[in-house]
Amino acid sequence: MRLTIHSLTYNEHMSQSYVIDCLLEPIFWIVDNFAGNLGQVFVFCVSVLTTAVVLIAYWIGLPFWWQRDPYTTIFLVLFGNWLLLNIIFHYYKGVTTSPGYPPHGTMISEAASICKKCISPKPPRTHHCSVCDRCILAMDHHCPWLNNCVGYYNARHFFLYMVYMVAGVLFVIIFGFEIGFQVLWLYDPSANIPHNDPDLIGHPVRINQTGALIPIKDIVEYDSFNFPREHNLPVPVISELQLISSDPWKRKAVIFMAITCLSVFSALGTLVTWHGKNISRGETSIESHINAKLRKTPRNLYRNPYDFGRSKNWKLFLGLVQGRTFIRHILLPSSHRPSGNGLTWHTIHNVMEDWP
């Protein structure tokens, strides 16, 4: 029976990788058939979450900082809107910019191989996307949050969107930490004001016949001549933190902000670090896996032909060539395209040519 089972299930190509590929085949099928439709849902979710975070920051954070220091508030509003402008711009460009496709019906002299799915010439660094069902120039990966492939023409927008989003949520976390600490850590539900009435904060109170608490703002007493005495009762200052803690909707909004910002910071912060390392090595995410295997070859003789050194790799990726500057084209929104066409690539073996 053992021999029979082995003979019926024998596969010459059987290996651990082959078994994993077979087990993951249903997942690949779901991705190939539904990822394109789900991408529109993901883009909608990103837009809604970003809008919600911005509105809550204005609703809760702006009054809090304005009561504390108006001048600091003006700086925070300007700085925060600069981050928001870059986030919106690079996300829009990442979604709408074509990643770049090899031309069809023409001779591509630079072709390195033939795509087995497109049955067409495939230039160097080009890979086939199963979701888009076509080849992508300098493909990094298919991003469902962009509903688009990340490739030659939109990789910079994708990376800068993540950088500015991480900076934005870190900005919210730092300057909203005191609010979050008050609501999430110091808030005592048992000490909540009945009916969440801010008028009861800091005032003496009395209980009427119905059992309701009523603030005492005027105290009437009589002197020895039966004239009412005048009292100048100090009116306590009600802080924004007290108002936020006493409002159930604002407390829920702060909790939502804390969960969202910490999650986005952790996820995108990890991706920014990962992609930053790849950019420093002059490779895409797909190439990083391929090159990792090639580096394990005997004598470790492989060298990435597109690795020009960390400084030049970053300049090429960000497009800081041909007189472009970091302040104008990185710190401010810029739609400049990368130099080249994605079909022809310079390598470290072009020692006679200073490029770019």
UniProtKB/TrEMBL annotation:
Cellular component, GO annotation: membrane
Membrane topology, record value: Multi-pass membrane protein
Domain of life (superkingdom): Eukaryota
Keywords recorded for this protein, A-Z: Acyltransferase, Membrane, Transferase, Transmembrane, Transmembrane helix
Main location: membrane
Transmembrane segments annotated in the record for this chain: 41-61, 73-92, 158-177, 253-274
EC number annotated for this UniProt entry: 2.3.1.225
Reactions that this protein is recorded to catalyse: L-cysteinyl-[protein] + hexadecanoyl-CoA = S-hexadecanoyl-L-cysteinyl-[protein] + CoA
One Pfam family this sequence matches: DHHC
InterPro entries per UniProt: Palmitoyltrfase_DHHC, PFA4/ZDH16/20/ERF2-like
Annotated PROSITE patterns: DHHC
Domain Palmitoyltransferase DHHC: 110-178
Annotated localization: Membrane
GO MF annotation, one: protein-cysteine S-palmitoyltransferase activity
Domain notes: The DHHC domain is required for palmitoyltransferase activity.
Family per record: Belongs to the DHHC palmitoyltransferase family.
Entries under PANTHER family matching the protein: PALMITOYLTRANSFERASE ZDHHC16
Protein's recorded name: Palmitoyltransferase
